[in-house]
Design goal:
Elements lengths: L10 H7 L26 H6 L13 E15 L8 E15 L20 H8 L3
Length: 131
């Protein structure tokens, strides 16, 4: 499994996403922290289907998702006015597991990699949830 990558936008990326005022100056409002499309909203039916108890989560908590996805489309576009290729992949989530996560003290990021003390831990958690 690949390492997790922090997808938070850089300051330059955030500036690009903030709308400009009529005077052409960036608005003072804080822009989004992460790129469009990386937010996942689960409704009552989805939470019930996965037997998720919302009382176990608080706003600001870290959590882990494990998802099985199907590639529904991919494209690489090149335009005559731009030298940069535009790549895109669309993923349809077909199976999903949500667990409370723990923060890694060193990096501040979560890690679901198996460690030497508990090989197969991730697979055990997913099997227990029926995945």
């Amino acid at each position: 499994m690949s390492d997790m990558v922090n997808m938070e936008m850089s300051e330059k990326e955030k500036e690009k996403s903030i709308p400009t005022s009529i005077e052409g100056k960036p608005e003072k409002a804080k822009g989004p922290q992460y790129p469009y499309g990386l937010k996942l909203d689960l409704d009552n039916e989805s939470l019930d289907k996965m037997d998720i108890d919302l009382s176990e989560f608080d706003v600001g908590d870290n959590a882990m998702i494990m998802a099985k996805v199907k590639v529904s489309s991919k494209s690489i576009d090149k335009y005559d006015y731009d030298t940069k290729e535009r790549k895109r992949i669309s993923l349809q989530i077909t199976h999903l597991c949500l667990e409370q996560g723990e923060e890694d003290e060193d990096e501040g990021e979560m890690d679901w990699e198996d460690d030497e003390k508990e090989p197969g831990k991730v697979d055990q958690i997913l099997r227990k949830k029926g995945y």
